[in-house]
Design goal:
Length: 156
């Protein structure tokens, strides 16, 4: 009897999540490396953080605008294809926090795996493996040095 109550409770909880999750699909407008606009709504990518547009990173003593690179990489990933985002929470700016896809490609994971985003461990551990792989291979920002985006925002 007790186990059936636990199972029923878990099923109801998952149904509650499914009912509260929002799904948006269609053409997307890229705002920056981790934010897009879809169906008139801004979506902030869950579990990742990209450098800001004005943020500088460095490779071999040469500075470059890594935020612009992250944004350009996302534009290339989307490549005009329809995007689908699924989320169930909103941030303080009323943006939907979501995981976004082009076909089967998880854009959040792809940005981190390519080294143009980092796992935002404060909110999620979902993309830590992708970050560790990108760092080990020296991809994207990991080719040189950079300040974590949340630290850069705090100091600027």
């Amino acid at each position: 009897m007790r186990w059936s109550l636990v199972i029923v409770t878990l099923c109801l909880a998952s149904l509650s999540f499914a009912a509260s999750a929002e799904t948006l699909s269609g053409p997307a407008r890229v705002i920056d490396g981790d934010t897009i606009e879809l169906e008139g709504e801004r979506i902030r990518f869950h579990g990742i953080d990209t450098p800001e547009a004005r943020q500088l990173c460095e490779v071999d003593g040469v500075e470059y605008r890594c935020g612009d690179e992250a944004t350009a990489f996302l534009v290339g990933l989307i490549s005009g294809d329809p995007v689908t985002c699924i989320g169930d929470t909103r941030d303080r700016y009323k943006r939907l926090i979501g995981v976004c896809y082009v076909g089967e490609v998880d854009l959040n994971a792809a940005l981190v795996r390519a080294g143009w985003a980092v796992a935002y461990r404060r909110y999620s551990m979902d993309y830590v493996n992708e970050e560790e792989a990108a760092e080990a291979e020296g991809l994207g920002m990991w080719r040189g040095t950079f300040e974590m985006p949340w630290d850069w925002r705090r100091s600027h």
